[in-house]
Amino acid sequence: MRYTLFLFLCAVAITAGPKPTIAQTTDFGTWLNDFRARARQEGISQPIIDQTLYNIQPIDRVIELDRKQPEGKWSFVQYREKIVHPLRIRRGREMMAKYADKLDAVHKRFGVAPQYVVALWGIETNYGHNTGGFDIVPALATLAWEGRRADFFSKELINALRILDEGHIQPSELRGSWAGALGQNQFMPSSFHAYATDGDGDGRKDIWKDIDDVFASSANYLARSGWRDGERWGREVRLPQGFSEQHVGLEVKKPLQSWKNLGVKTTAGTPIPVVDGMNASIVAPDGLGGPTYLVYNNYRVIMKWNRSTYFATSVGLIADAIASAQ
Length: 326
Ligand SMILES: [Ca+2]
Description:
There is one protein chain. By secondary structure, the protein is an alpha+beta fold. Among the domains are: 18-67 and 133-180, Helicase, Ruva Protein, domain 3, CATH 1.10.8; 234-323, Lysozyme, CATH 1.10.530. It is built from 15 helices and 7 strands. The protein has a 5-stranded antiparallel sheet with strand order 4-6-7-3-5. A two-stranded antiparallel sheet has the order 1-2. Strand 6 and strand 7 form a beta hairpin. Calcium ion is lined by residues 198-200, 202, 204-206, 210, 213.
């Protein structure tokens, strides 16, 4: 489960909500004492418990951010304008050139083309620049104690402690977003354990500072989620007049030939290319009056990273832009 879009909407479209009210009935010190016992039960080593689960306090800012609700939803076009930004594309092209050798190696190892690894990096943290400045243990402890999604965040906190126990990073360096997303690709701790990968072979999975590990981990996430190398994510398309809304949505899957027969065209007005065996869906995030996309298997894979059509479409558009002639 990922919170990127949620966080993004919180960050851009909020006003101060009602003053945070604390749902929990236990004081933090008592909760922390109980949690130390749980961490021991879960097999977290005593040195890590001693280093991280004493002398911490709940973070007011985390509660405040968790309590703020998105006020109104951005349209996809507004989101796209912000996220698929010329500066992000220009920097993405620079990163493609700078890390060409590493990205090629990752492509060979995982079957995920460089532009997708770079696009995810760019959209998540602006190429490692904006990884979140919160100490993760107190941030997750705050959310686990505070109550609204206590079970989820308690598990993520145990997972975060396990990262420290495995020695991938020092406790003082375990930083990320207020809701626990870690490092340059913003993995939640559970995703870290599922997908983080040691890219440079030093025995540690360091998605904070080691670019080989960042690239390998993102590519591994996609590869393990069903990525198909050599297939596109999708493309923007033009629909014929009177196109029925019943054909729109990820739940409607048809072979490319069927879409062609229904009159779906490229944005240039030419027939869509047909590849046998490829199914696709039509996505129209702002409804049929807005931009429409024909999306393939890899789009669904991106949605396993973040279950948002805004996010997945923008990753695809950035990837296309940074892979195109400069
Ligand atoms: Ca490593």
